[in-house]
Amino acid sequence: MKIIECPRDAMQGIKAFIPTEQKIAYINELLKVGFDTIDFGSFVSPKAVPQMSDTVEVLANLDIGNSTSKLLAIVANVRGAEDAAQHEQIRYLGFPLSLSETFQQRNTNKSIAEAMQQLAHIQDICHQHGKTLVTYLSMGFGNPYNDPWDAATVLRFVAELHQLQVEIISLSDTVGISSPEDISYLFTHLIPAFGSIEFGAHLHTTPAAWEEKVAAAYEAGCRRFDGALRGYGGCPMATDELTGNMPTENLIAYFENIGLNLNLNKAAFAAAMAQSSAVFS
């Protein structure tokens, strides 16, 4: 079981700039917990995402020497990937590839075809620098723009990524509209069909719907889950203001309740939970 903690996703939509020192302290606390990966920052235009403009400074001050967690940074184009790949501490580069043409344009100012070309170049950069590409299939369970979506479309995208030797694909419920039935169907069909790919679930949810989504993904074979403490963050395009990131504490409770040993430092987790209130206030 891999839990990926996503402070970057939680922070990036906040308009008020979170002081760099506060980000560093918070992520350093998260690094003590024992999460598989920390999605800590992004190498994107500061104009597009001002909150992440200090990613390089944050990275330089992270205490990763005594942590088992790997670092993941989001990139939106080849230039960002080239910049991120220069940093030895970063293990994963994450790229958002949308199944919705409208959202791809809004999110990265590119068409899906252009984004796929960029992704192929980013995969080459990852191979050259010993990084692993994580592709997020955003709007992976539908979209609010009436762009075409069905399970066959998801399978087609995954097949194209398989041709590029992408090793990790995270299905992203960007606006929190997935159903347990869709989650179960996709993971049940994708996991056995593409044995070389590790599939993850990046699920946004309302407070009432989180457990059925996690259960559907887990029972269908998913063993990689993204979350953010207290469910902070989420896509501003979601139609329900209660929709946010999957609360990490809920993931932990669910998996421990079914008997999994996650090997997490409970004291460090409690400290991070306490600190999150100040960071996101």
UniProtKB/TrEMBL annotation:
Pfam families: HMGL-like. Residues 1-270 form the Pyruvate carboxyltransferase domain. Keywords: Lyase, Metal-binding. InterPro entries: Aldolase_TIM (IPR013785), HMGL (IPR043594), PYR_CT (IPR000891). GO terms for molecular function: lyase activity. It comes from the Bacteria. PANTHER family: HYDROXYMETHYLGLUTARYL-COA LYASE. Belongs to the HMG-CoA lyase family. This is Hydroxymethylglutaryl-CoA lyase. It comes from Pontibacter saemangeumensis.
